[in-house]
Amino acid sequence: MLKTIKRKLIYLCLSALFLSSCKSNYISKNLENPFYNNQFTGLLVFNPKTKDTVFKKNADKYFTPASNTKIFTLYTALQVLPAQIPAFKYGIENDTITIQGVGNPTFLHPFFNDSTALKMARNYKKVNVVLNNLEDDKFGPGWAWEDYDTYFSPEKSSFPMYGNVLTISNQDSLQSIPKALKNQIHFSESNKRRNFNDNTFYYNPKRKDTIEVPMVIDTALVKQLWDDILPNKVSVFKQSDKALTHTAYSVPSDSLYKRMMLVSDNFLAEQMLILASSTLSDTLSSKRIRDTILNKQLKDLKQKPRWVDGSGLSRYNLFSPTSFVQVLEKLHNQIPQQRLFNLFPVGGSSGTLKNYYSGEEKPYIYAKSGTLGNNYSLSGYLITKSGKTLIFSFMNNHYRKSTTDVKKRMQLIFEWLRDNY
């Protein structure tokens, strides 16, 4: 009887090893295709329930992650921020309210249109706005300087307004949000949408669409924007001589996280790190919160990343597939699956994955993509037909083929895992 049981156990183990080997062989052969010859590719697929590594190739090597970096930003925000986004800190003295930014990106933002600060400020005779509590430079390290006038590269600041972009449209007549800068827009067929160092904007008269152009953020602009919405009440200061002990709150945090992840919004990602740093100090610093998270919550990472910004715009960032899988596993353990998956783009359904990785009957990919020139990565969760949840990170660097072709090759592996694991 005992010998029979032992034989059955040995058979089951050998069968499991054989099936695992078959799965690995299929993926290995796929990645050995000449398509991958002249690029650097890494893949880790992990079963969080059984703790089994389904497949691994170059998983411990460093890659340029692009917007996969936002997974670390999301993890950071979920660790330290409350259910409602902190809007600003404030203090009240007689008929004066003093408010100081905490990096909240939602104030008058085109998508969120939060007006918490404006509503509160209207109740006071005088309003003091405190700036200059941010240690970050306005651009992240390694960002491409020529992107200064592109929608995806707004400046960072302690008290953002309107998403730090000027929204311009010309349907029946020229319109701008904020209206205060309308007179600084000029019709021009120039390829540039703004002067390099000042708020002079250009809009091609042949266009009929809406564009967003980053503003140059300085004290004078902030004063101008506040005077436009609250005339003759606002003064701007570099610092406050009194402690600001109260905090106002903005939108539900998950709405910010979801927007950042779905459309891969660089501005929201950068400001989320700054916002998270406000839980450590009144002096805002995305570096401080990154270091804190890496040295505490993520001190067990097998490969410590080089993490320099919140969005992934910088090519200085270096992450391994293993690090992404580790963080995704932590999120999977900490956050209910329905809430967690709701924050990620869904294959064939939403966000940056709307046109890729669709399921046959229902979605099976919940993941964050990352794209820079010649680099594409995807990290997240895959639901198999048998109901298993797999965590994966698939990273591709330095290819010269089209990104669409890279995605098609990746999809072959994802669909095989979905159907066979």
Automatic annotation (TrEMBL):
InterPro entries with a match to the protein in the record: Beta-lactam/transpept-like, Peptidase_S13
A biological process from GO: proteolysis
Enzyme Commission number(s): 3.4.16.4
Signal found in the keyword field: yes
Protein's UniProt keywords contain Protease: yes
Entry coiled-coil feature ranges: none
Leading EC class: hydrolase
Source domain of life: Bacteria
Signal sequence annotation: 1-26
Similarity-based family: Belongs to the peptidase S13 family.
Protein name: D-alanyl-D-alanine carboxypeptidase
Natural source organism: Hwangdonia lutea
Pfam families on file: Peptidase_S13 (PF02113)
Gene Ontology molecular functions: serine-type D-Ala-D-Ala carboxypeptidase activity
